[in-house]
């Protein structure tokens, strides 16, 4: 059965329709994003070559995608004149990185460089460019097929073996054992079997949360409606009657797998959103003559930055943490750290001393073996209405202080990462007057600014700007905007900063 | 995005070209035509903004190289901004990052 086949007109604008059509087809394979991009480019180059150089133009260009023997087979065919220079072009093709490729014939060079196997076949009525792309075996979806009839089992393997890794079983009990250990991507089972029948197998899987959501299809010749009803009550994904065709079985499996993938993605996104919301930093508004301005830039995957503050009768302490890594794991760890910090700061006498807060965090991290698989940095600052600020750091980028007449400079403070020492970290005391300011931030900002030392990067970005007034905030927002829109794809840390002005 | 949007403007002597969507054979053809009209001796530099470019093929690379050569021959500055995703991968693969002096952001 063809996975995809479509005919296009011989116009350049059709390459866009082709890209749009082919994207979901290639994405449903086990190929990586980069390989999908490469193969799409190869198709566009071949298509463009035909439209620009074939004389006369073909009346149609057809693209098809199929799988065979663990390979993806992409064929671009046309009914125009034969391209006679293909083999010569292959012999003289330059490799990737050879800059002379940019002079001429780059399209053909890309076709040869970006494919592991490409051939050109021509008959009187049709030309075919055939690309074979090996599908990564380990990433192929796995299917457990169960049928006590060896012929039925062989047929499932023959129908699905070129696209999926099929594990056949003729006994329900053995299949159940395998499923419990291996968690395949999909299960296809007959109903009428000795030992453990299909209904019992399904019921057993349904009762175990670890296997209940594995997509399940009954493929059976049982025609008893009562049994059909019973099967449908077992939360199955589909019911296919024997005998079936390859096309019908492949379509059913494809549809069920795609739906399962979508549900998983959607559930993961919902989970991530709920975790992200629960980590929304609590930003203090003001304390006496101190004013607080916070900006948080969550990247696509989001990192593990968070800010916690506690207010006492005459002080306010802020802790800014950066859990290394990104995505859900970083956020889950951030959750754990957040709980520890809030519990440490529940006592006023501890909360008013940033060094003791970080010391408490350090001893929690040292004791909790679950946290050893991640790294966290933290900075804590306690503000008093008098203008006194105590700052302590645990492996965190140095905060910046703005002093009237001096300008911005790093606060000279250092401290080891939480979990490495139980000693009280160093505390730096600052006295901020009117017009002075303090800036705490996480290192996501340095990535945005493409510098190694975040404090240097921020110093350079802020230049001679005064403490958080409209110009400084505009600059910080500009940095935030860069973080949100101009980042590299693989750069998905979060950036947080807190400016405190007096 | 499979369509494209082209923006060509001259601001304070800088010719700014922005391509959203695809920088492919069809886009390159239109850009070549439009830039000839906009380009003049009064230009001091060219900025090619690929921030919103999602796909580039060899014809797109050809356009970038022509634009760079055009700027060089007129002793103008030339900068490419914000290349990511597939276009960046293609430029990396063919060795175009260094010769085009790509900016990080």
Superfamily at the CATH H level of chain B? STAS domain
Give the fraction of residues assigned to helices of chain A: 25-40%
Mean pLDDT of chain B: 80
Order of helices and strands of chain B: EEHEEHEHH
Regarding quaternary structure, what we see is heterodimer
Quantity of strands of chain B, as a count: 5
The secondary structure category of chain B is alpha/beta
The rounded Rg of chain B comes to 13 Å
For the termini of chain B, the CA-CA separation is 21 Å
Low-confidence stretches of chain A: 445-452, 483-493
Broad CATH class of chain B:
Alpha Beta
Describe the protein's topology.
The complex is a heterodimer of chains A (502) and B (105).
Chain A: E1 4-8, H1 14-27, H2 33-53, E2 61-68, E3 71-78, H3 86-91, H4 106-113, E4 117-122, E5 127-134, E6 142-146, H5 150-160, E7 165-169, H6 172-182, E8 186-189, H7 198-206, E9 216-220, H8 225-232, E10 238-241, H9 246-278, E11 286-287, E12 290-297, E13 303-311, E14 315-326, H10 327-344, H11 348-351, H12 354-367, E15 376-384, E16 388-394, E17 400-403, E18 407-410, E19 428-431, E20 437-441, H13 444-448, H14 454-462, H15 470-485, E21 495-501
Parallel strand pairs in A: 6-7, 6-8, 8-9, 9-10
Antiparallel strand pairs in A: 1-2, 2-3, 3-5, 4-5, 11-12, 12-21, 13-14, 14-15, 15-16, 16-19, 17-18, 17-20, 20-21
Helix pairs in contact in A: 1-2, 2-4, 5-9, 6-7, 9-10, 10-12
Chain B: E1 4-11, E2 14-23, H1 25-38, E3 45-49, E4 53-56, H2 58-73, E5 77-81, H3 85-93, H4 96-99
Parallel strand pairs in B: 2-3, 2-4, 3-5
Antiparallel strand pairs in B: 1-2
